[in-house]
Amino acid sequence: MAARGGAAAGNKICQFKLVLLGESAVGKSSLVLRFVKGQFHEFQESTIGAAFLTQTVCLDDTTVKFEIWDTAGQERYHSLAPMYYRGAQAAIIVYDITNADSFSRAKSWVKELQKQANPNIVIALSGNKADLAQKRAVEVQEAQAYAEDNGLLFMETSAKTAMNVNEIFMAIERLERNMTYYHEPQPGSGAAGRAGPGVVLHDSAPQSRSSQCCN
User: Fold this and answer.
1) Which one, 17, 19, 24, 34, has the greatest CB density within 10 A?
2) Of 168, 176, 179, nearest to 203 (Cα)?
3) Minimal CA–CA distance to 53: which of 43, 39, 102?
């Protein structure tokens, strides 16, 4: 069971750099705010450049400090993105389920990360605004198939209702650390961020971890 708060005595402490990418107004900042502070603001101001937030979560005998970079979605800030995803262990690429263009843009981000980011980066795809399902423009099956084809974690989320918000952050962290522990990087390995087909998308009970998982 995950618990929030400061590091417990004797816990291992791991820092975990995570970046959020996606078109403007898809809800990246709202997802971070919900995860970090448990809050939702109906009218969230657009991020300028990038915002930095942290969240500390205790998992078993490990304290994980999320260092989260929430990047601006406007095209004029695109050239700054490598500064934030360089060295990141994970990325959440966000699209709006009511906006098909934002899904196309999300696919562009996946391609960019696969070419330019850390070869072992874990990539998650978040179909946000699931509370607006009646206005859906991107079907779950379409996004699910794309995620499976590209080895991505996938969940639909809602920053407004908190649906799957904590779950997607924690699933990424668990997958990244398990991959770090069980899989040494191989020369000439496949596309960055690929976790292999059939990735389990639902949150599961945390497993015991070695200190080798910590970065």
Assistant:
1) 19
2) 168
3) 39
Is residue 84 within 8 A of residue 91, CB to CB? The reply is no
Q: Counting every residue, how long is the chain?
A: 215
Distance CA 165, CA 55 (A): 13
Residue 63 to residue 60: CA distance in whole angstroms: 8
Give the bridge partners for 19, in sequence order.
69, 91
Residue type for position 183: H
CA distance 165 to 9: 28
Give the number of other CB atoms < 10 A from CB of residue 192. Answer: 20
Report how far apart, in Å, the C-alpha atoms of 179 and of each of 35, 40, 123, 152 are. 23, 32, 12, 13
Highest mean pLDDT among 69-73, 138-142, 194-198, 203-207: 138-142
**pTM of the full predicted structure?**
0.77
pLDDT in tens, 108-123: 999 999 999 999 999 9
Please indicate whether residue 45 or residue 67 has the higher confidence score (pLDDT): 67
In the block, residue with structure tokens 């360089």: 86
